[in-house]
Amino acid sequence: METFVLVPGAWKGAWAFEAVVPPLERAGHTVHALTLTGLRPDDDDATVATANLDTHAEDVLRALDRHDITDGTLVGHSYAGMVIAAAADRAGGRISRLVHLDAYVPRDGESCWSATNDHFRGVFAAGATDTGYAVRPPAGGDPRRRPHPLAAFLQTIRLTGAFAKVPRREFVYCAGWEDRTPFTPLRTRLRTDPTWRVHDLPTAHNAMHEAPEAVAKILLGG
Known about the structure:
Strand order of the largest sheet: 2-1-3-4-7-8
Structural class: alpha/beta
CATH architecture: 3-Layer(aba) Sandwich
CATH superfamily: Alpha/Beta hydrolase fold, catalytic domain
Helix content: 25-40%
């Protein structure tokens, strides 16, 4: 049985995986869905303003410690691809599998800002005009979304090489939003890398909502 740690993308909390958790648990696995620092309903302005990528990687590492996870699977959606990469690099061999669910797969020295496309750089910049430190969610979407710490998008990742040694690494490409996705070049690169397994889904970006059973099937190894 696997132990899954599910990490949501920008603006979201643990609720983003609410439709994926039940099928994983029915299959007998242990599942922990996280809400990252600065995205919790009771986080104050100072917490949001100071949270960055390192903060979010530490959130994951604390979850590993709290639940005594030594052979875990990290699943990161979208921005959280940065988070699970940073956490896995620092986890001291406690991660056996990574699943980047339509998510960034960073190289050392990249940031979410540098790895994304012009569309999302525009979203980040426009969304930060209210406070200068938090990016408001794009219009529409789930009302539970919260402003995302700007520093988390801007901070560069530092990887030692341990991230690349995780035994199982998978990338899920969502093909149903090809007019805006920043992940097409990433899919092309990873498909030629024998250390990665690439899955395709026909959904838009939020596959956990559109096709939770299909996402669960991939996580269950199907």
